[in-house]
Amino acid sequence: MTDLSSHRVSEADLETHEAVMKARGWLLWSKEPYGDGTYEVRWGRSLPPQDAVELASAPVTSGASSGQTASAAGSRAVVQPQPDRASGSMHFFFDGSQRPVKSEFHVRETPSYYEFETRISDPEMPGASYFYVIPQSATSMLVAACWGREPDAVAALFADPKFGDDWFKVYCDTYPIQGELFRNGFEERFSEGALIRLIDPGDGEPKWAVVTVVGNIDPLAEPDDPETADAYGLTGHQRFLASSRMAAAFELVGMKSFLAAQEYATREISITNKAKMMAKGAWQGYVEGLDAGAKWMRRLGGFS
Question: Fewer CB atoms near the end CB (10 Å): N or C, the chain?
């Protein structure tokens, strides 16, 4: 994985682009206007050389919490969230090992996100589902269903300099839902759901999640479904979470995650594609990578 990334972004897409890159753990290096309504935005996995020296002594910027570290480069400020280990780590999107005796709903609020836990007592599919709302700005929310670390092995196949493109085509042919999620993540297309790596604020580890962005939302406004907010016990600044747009985002990332899991459980790479990859000498990579990437299916606890 490269340590530098450069993007040309329109002014209209700038806020969303920055929010997603920061969620993925990138640090802003520079942002320069072209003069035509677009910007060249450069990112790094570590601070620029001149910033790294200043990091240890840089003060926390005004408005930043004690869980954030700030560094300055000229007039530019870079704020990188630090792990909030007291809040625990993000849960995998579904836990089939739980057997609730009654269905219930909980909201857990941390300095970095809202966690939605829905405990399901349905005998046909008992368990608990988890969704996360990660504020990106005052009016933009990243909604996520966490997939953990296991997709690292699949992504490593795509990054292979010799066979990566071939593996991505085979993967998309075999698992079209997951292929679309990966492609949307690579292309930063979030409206239909995208699979990206982000930093879990709870343990500081990079994890994969299916995400979408709900932008231009007023968290202080009364939701258009106040009955649902009342039923879930949402009060004050939490009530916007019951709005119809937020509900649609939860449904999107949840349904895409479950459909992807079902796809993984019911489909396999065709004999033809296996033969093609074996002929190219890439099959050992599959055995070591893609099979390892399938481990996350076990975490669904019987959902297949």
Answer: N
